[in-house]
Amino acid sequence: MSAPNTPSPDLNDAVCLHEAGRLEDAQVAYEQILDAFPGRMDAAHGLALVALDLGRPEDAVPLLTRCITKEPTNPAYHLSLGVALLHAGDAETAESQFRDLIHTVPKMVEPYLYLARALRVLNRWADAADVLTSASKLFFNRADVWTAKGQAERVLLRHTEAEQSYREALRLKPNDPDCLNNLAVVVRAQHRFDEAVALYLKALEGAPEHPKVHGNLGNALVEMNRTVDAEHHLRKAASLNPGDPSSLCNLAVFLTREERAGEAIPYFNDTIKIAPTYVDAWINLGVARLALGDTEGAETCYRRVIDIAPDNPEAHYNLAWVLLLTGRWTEGWQEYEWRWKLEHFSSHRRTFKPPLWDGAALPRGTLLLHAEQGLGDAIQFARYAALAKTRCARVIVECDKSLVPLFETLKGADEIIGAGDPLPPFDAHAPFMSLAHIFATTPESTPTHPSYLAAPSTIPARLQLPNNKRPRIGLVWAGSPNNKIDRRRTIPAELLAPLIASVDADFVSLQVGARAEEISTLPVDRVIFACNGQLGDFADTAAVIAQLDLVLGVDTAVMHLAGALGKPVWMLLPFMPDYRWLLSRDDTPWYLSMRLFRQAKAGDWTTLIANVSAELKHWASLSAKDSR
């Protein structure tokens, strides 16, 4: 804290030393005054402030208590005691001190600001916002009040209110880089990226070497997919403040997401050297190590986070990935239940009056199984309906409406309900992907069936494929862009052109959505049918797949469907695949008819497709022999 205001003449030397940052010399000077004049509370106050600046709040508290005993009406002493208590870790007593001071001196702004800080320490952000709202009405010309109010509102995700507060701060301090940065943060949180970038750039005009602004600008540019500019600003932030762990970590996270994990790891290591308990750095170091195939190193990182913060859901969830990927499914499925505590998870946890099912028999009861996450996940885990049926009198399955006609063929399901439609009465419920944990599934005990779904018995005329007396192969090259590893698993369609040219076969595009137009990069004369725009639901997709001899492509819902139908499936996997495909094997316990082809090197699809082309030639020759 700053030196005492309005010092008496004999304090001048001590105050000057204090203001100059010569804390040890100031301490000696204050002590000499107190030795000569023990009743000088202004010197005791100064000595307490030096103790605070030296990081010794426990030394400041008795000095300030002594000051208040001697001069109980001096508000500066009460304020300093509250600050000392706050720094000493006693936020609750500090809160009481600041509230008393506000009551006694209502026109003094500092108690409001420090009270809000104490409430933030106590994680009472809503209370802090209320205090600062009151302060903003009394001290409406104080930019620091509006800034603190905006910070509390931002944490509470009240972005519109936070924006108004930060604009008030900016009104009082026009073109101030910190005010511009704060405003940009909440504008970006409302997905107004262009406006946020303009604010960051304006802040840099006034403070071109401001590391926090460079870092925030870099993160905004990442969200706009302007990766070259983003990297420039993230590197600038790290170089301007090499001792700041968050700047180093932000750069490392960016590099990891750009599939440059090898470059990222040294920055994560530097971050952890500076801040050994920095949870985000450990988690993302684990992500980087996993991307490079270092499952043991990734597991070490996630377990380290759990040691630091036992209830961190991201660490548990990421640990589940490693455990499942490496075949340790008993612990893996248990850890996977932490997904529901993630702040941003693709599915919301469902709550019903009937309890979650624990696997116990319901000989007269009805069980509701509800799909979660992606459509491929729903298809894969729908197999558990048959197992559940062995323990329950009745099984209802709720799923995306696009799956309803297909799931009408699901073994074990008594009724299929589309998501959003009214649910009939039930006695217990379970999300699809908790069933592996409920049934204690291991790679050896996976419920496997040659097929557990069926295509329509009658194929609509619009979906009937030409029969040119050649093998028919379905292709799919892109998954949902919302999947966190989609960038790693999706490929440009043109990479499949050599594969198409390698065999005498007809090809069907099973790709739908925006990436379906990439069919134009493939040999048109070899593609006899394209599904995009032709399918109404997954039963239609099943009808097309039923006419194929082989389905070949990347990890998507279509591949799960083909496996569930019992069709031969060749899956092209990235070097580090989704957890369900395990490692170092060309088969999967999930689908008997599926064969896995894996990248030997991250990002190298060309070599993989060349190898698959050679295998496809062999497959086609065997198919030709079988047809004779």
Give structural notes.
There is one protein chain. The chain is α/β, with parallel strands linked by helices and 628 residues long. The chain is built from 29 helices and ten strands. The strands form two sheets. It has a six-stranded parallel beta sheet, with helices on both faces. Strands 3-2-1-4 form a four-stranded parallel beta sheet. α28 (557-564) links the parallel β8 (550-554) and β9. α5 packs antiparallel against α6 (91-104) and α17 runs parallel beside α19 (313-325). The radius of gyration is 32 Å and the shape is elongated.
> What can be said about the biggest beta sheet?
6 strands, parallel
Q: Average pLDDT, to the nearest integer? A: 95
For the CA atoms, what is the radius of gyration? 32 Å
Strand order of the largest sheet: 7-6-5-8-9-10
Helix content: 40-55%
Strand content: 5-15%
Which structural category fits the helices and strands? alpha/beta
Give the termini distance in whole angstroms: 91 Å
List the helices and strands and how they pair.
Blueprint: H1 12-19, H2 23-36, H3 41-53, H4 57-70, H5 75-87, H6 91-104, H7 110-121, H8 125-138, H9 143-155, H10 159-172, H11 177-189, H12 193-206, H13 211-223, H14 227-240, H15 245-257, H16 261-274, H17 279-291, H18 295-308, H19 313-325, H20 329-336, E1 362-370, H21 375-381, H22 384-389, E2 392-399, H23 404-407, E3 415-418, E4 428-431, H24 435-438, E5 472-476, H25 486-489, H26 497-501, E6 506-509, E7 527-530, H27 538-545, E8 550-554, H28 557-564, E9 569-573, E10 594-598, H29 605-627
Parallel strand pairs: 1-2, 1-4, 2-3, 5-6, 5-8, 6-7, 8-9, 9-10
Helix pairs in contact: 1-2, 2-3, 3-4, 3-5, 4-5, 5-6, 5-7, 6-7, 7-8, 8-9, 9-10, 10-11, 11-12, 11-13, 12-13, 13-14, 13-15, 14-15, 15-16, 15-17, 16-17, 17-18, 17-19, 18-19, 19-20, 21-28
